[in-house]
């Protein structure tokens, strides 16, 4: 294994650990690492989605087992996001201008999480089914188009709207990432994209990192820590789409 592949493998492990601790799959980090270290653009999207499914799948299992999940909140988002993620995955368009707007939105969400004053407002607002269906469709399309799972957007939305407790948000986001990543990957695979030869090593690395991170997030981390960690994750993702 060459030094570049070893470095990517190590960085993927760290990214999976951090992202899984807040219920995410890490696709934005994988895309950033691959872009910086010379993986071809054609290989980046399918690789990120495959690794995303593995890490978020581990997270979903652990968060559900720990009782950190809400089916009633999850299903409306998933219902509309899955077909839209497939559609987004089949589209091959330049997305640089969209990514610039995306980066600004992520930074705004991160600042809201990192500097938000006062205590938690979890579970204080009624769930709006119509809004959830619409938001799910938009997030699904964006997820498939860019090659991420969408949890990085869903998490702050759920927190800001007060539709789920912070610990439940992580579990919902993890499951949301699994179904969207799988749908987006299926759409993308219709064009038979290439995969890196090192992907088996990367899969093992993210599974290990994701298992450790999900264990920490589902059982040991407090709600304020999760909010701060999610804010940091959003900053990293924003820098990725704005700079890379």
TrEMBL record:
<feature type="transmembrane region" description="Helical">
    <location>
        <begin position="127"/>
        <end position="157"/>
    </location>
</feature>
<keyword id="KW-0472">Membrane</keyword>
<feature type="transmembrane region" description="Helical">
    <location>
        <begin position="95"/>
        <end position="115"/>
    </location>
</feature>
<comment type="similarity">
    <text>Belongs to the 4-toluene sulfonate uptake permease (TSUP) (TC 2.A.102) family.</text>
</comment>
<dbReference type="InterPro" id="IPR002781">
    <property type="entry name" value="TM_pro_TauE-like"/>
</dbReference>
<feature type="transmembrane region" description="Helical">
    <location>
        <begin position="44"/>
        <end position="64"/>
    </location>
</feature>
<keyword id="KW-1133">Transmembrane helix</keyword>
<feature type="transmembrane region" description="Helical">
    <location>
        <begin position="195"/>
        <end position="213"/>
    </location>
</feature>
<keyword id="KW-1003">Cell membrane</keyword>
<keyword id="KW-0812">Transmembrane</keyword>
<feature type="transmembrane region" description="Helical">
    <location>
        <begin position="71"/>
        <end position="89"/>
    </location>
</feature>
<feature type="transmembrane region" description="Helical">
    <location>
        <begin position="169"/>
        <end position="188"/>
    </location>
</feature>
<protein>
    <recommendedName>
        <fullName>Probable membrane transporter protein</fullName>
    </recommendedName>
</protein>
<dbReference type="InterPro" id="IPR051598">
    <property type="entry name" value="TSUP/Inactive_protease-like"/>
</dbReference>
<dbReference type="Pfam" id="PF01925">
    <property type="entry name" value="TauE"/>
</dbReference>
<feature type="transmembrane region" description="Helical">
    <location>
        <begin position="225"/>
        <end position="243"/>
    </location>
</feature>
């Amino acid at each position: 294994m060459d030094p570049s592949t070893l470095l990517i493998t190590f960085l993927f492990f760290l990214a999976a650990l951090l992202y899984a601790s807040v219920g995410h799959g890490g696709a934005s980090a994988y895309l950033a690492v691959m872009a910086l270290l010379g993986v071809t653009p054609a290989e980046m999207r399918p690789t990120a989605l495959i690794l995303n499914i593995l890490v978020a799948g581990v997270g979903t299992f652990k968060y559900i087992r720990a009782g950190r999940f809400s089916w009633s909140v999850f299903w409306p988002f998933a219902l509309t996001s899955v077909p839209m993620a497939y559609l987004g995955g089949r589209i091959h368009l330049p997305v640089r201008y969209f990514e610039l707007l995306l980066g600004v939105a992520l930074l705004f969400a991160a600042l809201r999480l990192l500097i938000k004053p006062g205590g938690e407002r979890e579970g204080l607002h009624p769930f709006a089914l119509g809004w959830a269906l619409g938001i799910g469709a938009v997030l699904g399309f964006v997820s498939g188009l860019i090659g991420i799972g969408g949890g990085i957007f869903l998490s702050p939305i759920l927190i800001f709207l007060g539709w789920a407790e912070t610990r439940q948000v992580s579990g919902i986001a993890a499951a949301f990432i699994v179904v969207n990543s799988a749908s987006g990957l299926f759409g993308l695979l219709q064009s038979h994209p290439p995969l890196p030869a090192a992907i088996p090593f990367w899969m093992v690395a993210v599974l290990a990192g994701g298992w450790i991170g999900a264990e920490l997030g589902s059982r040991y981390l407090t709600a304020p820590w999760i909010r701060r960690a999610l804010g940091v994750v959003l900053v990293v993702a924003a820098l990725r789409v704005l700079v890379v």
